[in-house]
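worker-03 picked up job from queue 'complexes'. Input manifest follows; two sequence lines, order preserved.
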Amino acid sequence: MTLWRYVGLGAMIWCLGAMWMAQAMVPIPDWPRPLTPAAQLSLDQLRFAFGFAPRLVLALLVGAVLGLSGALMQAVLRNPLADPTTLGVAGGAQLALVCATILMPDVLLWGRGPVAFAGAALTTGIVMILAARQGFAPVGVTIAGMLIGLLAGAVSTAVTLSQGHYLLSLVLWTGGSLVREDWSGIWRMGAVLACGAIGARLMLRPIAVMALGSQTAVALGVPVAWLRAGVLLLAVWLSASVSAEVGLVGFVGLAAPAMARRLGARRPGQILLAGACIGALLLGVIDLALIAVARGGGPALPSGAMTGLLGGPLMLLLLPKVRAAIVQSHSAPHRRERADLCVFWLICAGVALAAITLVWGRVPLGWGMLPTQLWPQIVPLRAIGLLAAGASGALLASAGAVLQRLTANPMAAPEVLGVTGGASLGYAAVVWLVPAPGPIALALGAGVGAACALAVLLICVARADLGAARVLLAGLAVGAFSSAVLAVMTATGDPRAWTVLGWLSGSAARVTQTGAVALCALALLVLGVLILARRVLEILPLGTGIAQGLGLRGARLRIGLILLAGLATGAASVLVGPVSFVGLMAPHIARSLGLVRAGSFVAGAWILGAVLMVLAAWGARSMTYPYDLPLGLFATLIGAPWLMIALLRRRGL
Amino acid sequence: MTLFSLSSVQFDVPGRRLIDGLSVDVPEGRVTALLGRNGSGKSTVMRLMSGQSQPSRGTVSYQGRSLPDWRGRDLARSLAYLPQVTPSTDGMYLQELVALGRYPWCGALGRLGRDDHAAIDRAIDLCGMAGLRDRDVSTLSGGERQRGWIAMMLAQGARTLLLDEPTSALDVAHQVEVLGLVQTMCHTQGLSAVIVMHDLNMAARFCDYAIALAHGKLCFQGPMEQLLRPPILHQIYGLPMQVVTGHPHPLTYPIA
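worker-03 finished. Artifact:
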């Protein structure tokens, strides 16, 4: 049994590490006896008994609960990528807790657990509705889950940022800190683990039958729907309990069962048990390492942020193993006959809308026109903001359109493919490395980061020769990784992190006249290039086989288009921030308007992106008048519900 | 005259050798069937011949010139390839799909000239699809869609067609329709075609030359009628096969 030997080895390493840390803190003869009254303990002994020891135990318990939860989800969905983080469960719990903390603090009197569970159950319900529509195909389910998770994360960031004074504690909580000062959480977590273990044991036999696939399971008399619902409910409750107790601890549920299988666990029971053990040891060892770093004078990093770093690379490693059964969507959109006419009307509508938002909106007494005598002072200022917003929307939409054509996938977008995540890493790198960076340096940093993220993505995809849906998943993994890095950066508490955090929400207020003009010029340039490249954009979605058969120099064109999309995203996200979903929405709307040929598709998406962002800018200005909301935040609030509806209406991803 | 000449070609993927020292010549002006069991390397050979993959060892030459020496667009003007699974075409009309075949001639920016339009019209007419020009490709039947893709290959102006299992998803009537089209093209227009096939009886009816692979190696090469003999078929498929005289072609079926 090599599996259990490995687990034993891990346990030994953990024990030795814990002993060593413990004796460094308090020499062994002075260790406090259990149940000694606190009054009789010295300060070091107190810290040992109520800080260090509970933290060690909590790490093990949380790890075990997450490992068990992940293993349950993976078994019942037959999906090696399932995990509380990838299925959007943790994101839902987080969103519910953030909303409750900020909007309805009274609710928290009932305890954090029920709130977290309600949020988690809601998102899981949505993900499962989406999953059922595509026959629980692993890739599609994971994409839906990660999208919902991304969405929940974006909305909770938006809500957090809109209430700045609560920021600090929430950010720390999001990082998943295991720091404790008593044992109360331990008993709760222990009880959760015990219930979870009993529940899993009771459902073990039918879960084992599910491993044969749902059709076989039905044939063997397993009530598949009930079983699936029951097991998922158990797994969701487990992970929501963790969210309520310590915050987000990402990807342990993905890593632990994967390691268990890698080390030779085969039968479902084995995987569940080994998954829980390995999860416990994994989080335990990571937490010990972080304690050691903190004691050595390094920053005190929360464990959840560190495990988040595992997620992205791990998913990319696991991707080739996933069953490739992808439900192809044959819902070709209705095609418009006079695409040029449609584009023309879009332009007219856009210009009219921009003109209206320039002068109409919230005024000191309700809604109305801006008084004409104020026009000379205010209209030019507003025009700059408007131009910048429109141009960045157009740029994001162009990037989305290119990516959708490049990957032949209508759900591709800079936000989804991790491009904006890369852009934020580039931005953060510039903030960290360059003293007092200017806007051009920041834009360049974001652009290079975006292009790097895309390059990483394409290398992974090219090596494993993945299908279009898996490209999306790889992109989401890249995005998850970059947001984990950002979370670690924020958790260090460095003041520069706040610059980055402020940027995440995006704001049109900082833009200068030169900046607006430059953005417009870039947007027009990108449009021109894409119109010229329309024939290429028509052929590329047909796949490398056809493209190469027609003599297209695929590799070079792809790299060129990727750089273009990266640059556009980087430039736009300096103004708007990384998440806005405009890059996903605009091309999607263009398609549903019947603009399917490459030329009219690109042009339509460009205009729609600009229009959406102009609307967002107007809303951000009027909503909390006389204060400006961050632009990207407002765009997210529009985009999120739309994306949800679009996802629910789709069949197959 | 040889169309393709493969000399000691080897193709490896991590952990497996898909093609092992294959040397074979494909004749020009004929319909060549590429046969073999699943996993015998047929699709790999197609990808090697179309330049989609490069051999790990050995050379593939087309019309006497090694494939890497061909410029991408020149090769595309002469050689057309249809992958096993045709991609979905998202709202594209038939004539627009066929027009994409002119890409090797007019590039990303060039306008479609009179020659181009003539080539497109001719391709559509040859495939008997004149009535379907303005139909959305995704609404066509399986056989019509496959004919549409072949029309794109014809519009490409290529003299050589490589088709990877063009009939795998079609019923018998559509199989006859598509293969008949390819056969007519080759016999009347002087084109050459290499087709990956599974159905021996279809191959016997529509192809004049056969190349059979087994375990990545050459198993048989020669005119179609020489292939249809029990010992050779046994060698290819590892199964006793019977050949009965039929008209106009012999029929084969497995005994066991």
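worker-03 released lock.
The first helix of chain B runs from residue 42 to 49.
The longest strand of chain B covers residues 2-13.
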